[in-house]
Amino acid sequence: MRLAVLVTAAWAALLSLALTGCGTGGYTSAGSQGAGKKLFITACGGCHTLADAGTAGTIGPNLDDAFAQAREAGMTSATFTQVVANQIRFPITATSTGAPGMPAADTTLPSCDDVEGDAFCVDDQDQAVSDVAVYVGAVAGTGVTAEKQTDGKSIFTTTCGGCHTLADAGTAGTVGPNLDGAKPSKELVVDRVTNGKGVMPPFGASLDAAQIQAVADYVSSTAGK
Ligand code: HEC
Ligand code: HEC
């Protein structure tokens, strides 16, 4: 249902662009999948599961599930790309359930003109939206199964880095505490990852016990170093 609404919105946006002849930012054919994958892991993966990217976020919908059915029904990657680009540019921020929706592009892909310090940002926001949209459009719902990650650093980068800064992993998320500053014990990492707290979702269903131990070993041994 939701996808149908989004697809309709995508075509409406395309149509209005065509009608007004105002062509800035509407088309996304010129995106780079490679750049898009990296951006997705940093900017989106903390909230969305996508097998190809190896991300396991659970705050937003699983994007493989969201697109699989429509892909089976014959919808093409180009259409998905447009749907994703519109969701990033015009996210549904107020949901029918009252749950927080998806943040705007200035939060998910902030422009470096607006960001101080070394927090995550992009030089060209339009290009970044295109890159992510082309990437997600190409891979979501294709039936790729995630290769199970066992290495703590990879698990951290794909699952946690979108929300947490950790110098060793090169991540710069700011939703949760900076872990170099927090220097959590292994026990605390295991507890938070298993049970979540506040805005941090639990990962006890998406990561198995060995993966949780691996990411906890990694974080507790590298944070603040
Ligand atoms: C802070 C969490 C968060 C981040 C970061 C985030 N999203 Fe979302 N996203 C959500 C939520 C929540 C929804 C569901 C909104 C709703 O209920 O309508 C959503 C919905 C979507 C949908 C629609 C899926 C469907 O089934 O309707 C797409 C596509 C999407 N997001 C892509 C992205 C991309 C690409 C990025 C990175 C640029 C991103 N999201 C970043 C939380 C997030
Ligand atoms: C959607 C964003 C988000 C994701 C994804 C996320 N966290 Fe968190 N995390 C938070 C927030 C917010 C808090 C603060 C919770 C509170 O105390 O209310 C937090 C707290 C923590 C803490 C406790 C820090 C302290 O000193 O209190 C640890 C440790 C932690 N997270 C590790 C992780 C690990 C490891 C992962 C990946 C498996 C992860 N987080 C994924 C948002 C996130």
What does this structure look like?
This protein is mostly helical. It folds into 2 domains: 2-16 and 30-139, Orthogonal Bundle (Cytochrome Bc1 Complex, Chain D, domain 2); 152-222, Cytochrome c-like domain (Cytochrome Bc1 Complex, Chain D, domain 2, Orthogonal Bundle), CATH 1.10.760. 48% of the residues lie in helices and 4% in strands. The protein contains 10 helices and 4 strands; from the N terminus they run ααββαααααββααα. It has helices at residues 2-20, 33-43, 63-72, 77-89, 105-108, 125-139, 152-159, 179-182, 186-195, 209-222, and strands spanning 49-50, 55-56, 165-166, 171-172. It has a two-stranded antiparallel ribbon with strand order 1-2. Strands 3-4 form a two-stranded antiparallel sheet. The structure holds heme C (2 copies).
Mean pLDDT rating: 83
Whole-number count of domains: 2
CATH architecture of the largest domain: Orthogonal Bundle
From the 3D structure, determine the CATH topology of the largest domain.
Cytochrome Bc1 Complex, Chain D, domain 2
The number of helical runs is: 10
Largest sheet geometry: 2 strands, antiparallel
Number of distinct beta strands: 4
Quick overview of this protein structure:
With 225 residues, the protein is mainly alpha-helical. The protein has 2 domains: 2-16 and 30-139, Cytochrome c-like domain (Cytochrome Bc1 Complex, Chain D, domain 2); 152-222, Cytochrome Bc1 Complex, Chain D, domain 2 (Orthogonal Bundle), CATH 1.10.760.10.
Task: Indicate the topology.
Layout: H1 2-20, H2 33-43, E1 49-50, E2 55-56, H3 63-72, H4 77-89, H5 105-108, H6 125-139, H7 152-159, E3 165-166, E4 171-172, H8 179-182, H9 186-195, H10 209-222
Antiparallel strand pairs: 1-2, 3-4
Bound molecules: heme C (2 copies).
One heme C (HEC) binds at residues 2-3, 6, 43-44, 46-48, 59-61, 63, 66, 84, 87-88, 92, 95, 101-103, 108-109, 132, 136.
